[in-house]
Amino acid sequence: MQDISLRQARRIALAAQGFTDPLPSGGVDARHLRRVLGRTSLLQIDSVNVFARAHLLPAFSRLGPWPTPLLDDLAFRRRELFEYWGHEASYLPMTLHPLLRWRMARAEALEEGWGGPLRVFKERPEFVGSLLTRLQDEGPCGAGALRSAPRGKGSWWGWDDVKRGLEYLFWSGRVTTSRRTNGFERLYDVTERVIPSAVLALPTPSRLDAQRELVRIAAHAHGVATERDLRDYFRLRVDEGRAAVSSLVEDSALVPVRVEGWREVAYLAPGAAAPRWVRRSALLSPFDPLVWERKRTARLFGVDYRIEIYVPAPQRVYGYYCLLFLHEEAIRARVDLKSDRKAGVLRVLASWLEPGSVPGSTAEALAAELQRAAGWQGLGEVVVEQRGDFARELQEAVAARAGGAC
Fold this sequence. Notes:
The chain is of the alpha+beta class and 406 residues long. 39% of the residues lie in helices and 18% in strands. The protein has helices at 6-16, 30-40, 57-63, 69-77, 101-108, 115-123, 125-138, 161-171, 197-200, 207-222, 227-233, 238-250, 294-301, 359-376, 391-402, and strands at 2-4, 43-44, 81-85, 89-93, 175-180, 186-190, 224-226, 255-259, 266-268, 281-284, 322-327, 330-340, 345-353, 381-387. The strands form four sheets. It has a five-stranded mixed sheet. Strands 1-8-9-7 form a four-stranded mixed sheet. Helix 11 packs across helix 12. The longest helix is centred in the last third of the chain and has 18 residues, at 359-376. The chain is globular and about 65 Å long. The chain starts with a strand and ends with a helix. The model is unreliable at 149-158 (pLDDT under 50).
């Protein structure tokens, strides 16, 4: 079995995720966004918009400033992407639609899905059927347009039975997202009016074949990964992910390797690039495929990372929406960001230096990346607030770039 150093594993992972691809020399267009999706195979969707929505950040991390309407163009005008449960709710290339039909069939059989949507269908099947009929008759609708009474407080997200019923239909593949409103509300429509007929006509592989292909895609997205990493990419069950990995190993489509410091066997994707170095700086969202599996992030980069959105404010360590800063093959810092659109500034609410990082060079690189992020969000200034052990150095670096006091 081949031995791989931790540094090699990190470089393989960064290359697989697109961090060695050349930055666009001119304007970013659809070809560049397709290249990112060719690396990641999905973009996880999240509505939190304190800095920028989660599904927009991976492309910024890999391309720099890019025109975000490109994503809607690919998804809702060109119909190259569709929304479904990949890792979590995700934008996915249309080529993956047949590979996820087994999940839709399971949801229809009430064998997979969230408790609320499944419960509504079990308890009120006629009601859910009426929602489907209205979409068939009326065309694309949001949950609000289908309500006959004001919405109650509902659950954590304010969901009521209308929303839960629509989500059951979405999970089972009978409806999908036609488009999103400017307020990011999902407009549902029946699947056959949204997914291109040529895609719907593609053969449906067996569950085993589909899951095997999903693990193969995950392997190429990771470069090198453990079994847990591979099955987590598309949220496969333990036994099913294990069976897919074993099948791919048997066919030499995955190569078992030992990675320095990893207790578990890892698997290398054939043809994975192993660059001699990675020279890229990037802000990483909590939902970026490079870092979303926190145990993998700890193994690769030696950092303990968690999202603190759901942590009560007095108990937060790093901040509400903290992003990691990748620089010179390592995680060097983390920053809690907020786009203050009313004031026209990008606020760094807290900034922290990772152990072993050099303050001066890290601050200079991070200040440059924050300036790019502010420009991308249409904000004119970066303001670094006092919280965090890296605030002073970062303030000075930002001030030096701006040519004045921070």
